[in-house]
Amino acid sequence: MGIIHDVRKLTDLSYLNLYQLHATSIHETPVVYNVASRAKNVEKLKLKTHENMADGVIIYSLYGERRDRVVLVRQYRYTIDDYIYEFPAGLVEEGEDFHATAVRELREETGLTLELVPVEEGYEKPYFTTIGMTDETCATVYGYASGTVRKDEQEDSEEIEVVLADRQEVRRILREEKVAIMCAYMLMHFLDETKDPFEFLNY
């Protein structure tokens, strides 16, 4: 196992910061490694706390009387200078339970109301998003969405189109569009018309 000797905060921003660590690898090679993190300071980095607290939440929700559509957002992202399909998602505020975050974020991004589906911890606990670059973790929340799509609570910095996609549209999206990988895996489950999309949660 490597040994971390020193960690320094390189930026001081609101939602994401860059940290640089100096270490020695298991092969006794000096290592300089940069990590992006939601942590506000060095002491709150997961490499310090070793706690798996959710930084964000991803919302997999079904829509319609037959629950045969999935709620997606088509969002412009500066990192690729293009649009990408994702599940609605957002950051957990300090002291906020991530289930409450999911309800709030779905309303803010889409105008829809979320009815949570209770699941075992292994299906919703925080998992690491891109561990090679960041210590960020996201929990996944499942539920049924209802109501009318609205955009009045979206932030001015966001460019989001709400998409209520049926299976035919999901097939097209996976084939033709840019899609976030966590969303893509779940959409592959959704495509099986012979099963309830949430059937796997009962395993």
From TrEMBL:
An annotated Gene Ontology molecular function: pyrophosphatase activity
Gene3D superfamilies xrefs: Nucleoside Triphosphate Pyrophosphohydrolase
Positions of the Nudix hydrolase domain: 50-187
Pfam short name (any one): NUDIX
InterPro entries: Nudix_hydrolase, NUDIX_hydrolase-like_dom_sf, NUDIX_hydrolase_CS, NUDIX_hydrolase_dom
Protein's UniProt keywords contain Hydrolase: yes
PROSITE patterns: NUDIX, NUDIX_BOX
Domain of life according to the entry: Bacteria
GO biological process: nucleoside phosphate metabolic process; ribose phosphate metabolic process
Alphabetized UniProt keyword annotations: Hydrolase
Family of this protein: Belongs to the Nudix hydrolase family.
Protein name as catalogued: Nudix hydrolase domain-containing protein
Organism: Blautia hydrogenotrophica (strain DSM 10507 / JCM 14656 / S5a33) (Ruminococcus hydrogenotrophicus)
